[in-house]
Amino acid sequence: MSFLDLILIAFLLYMFFSGYSKVFFSTLYDLVSFMIMMLFIFFNVETISSIIQIYKPVDDPLSQLGGSVINMLIVFIIMFVVLEIIRRLIGVLIKPLVNQLTDHFALTAFVNHSLGSLLHALKGVFISFMVMMMVIIPFFGPDILTDSKIGHLIIEDVPILSQKAINEASAYGCLLKGQHTLQLEDKDILKKMIIANNHAYDHGILDEHDATQFVYTQLAPALMNQQVIIPHEEKLQFISLLNKTPYTETEKNTILNNIGSE
Question: Within a domain: residue 176?
Answer without folding.
Answer: no
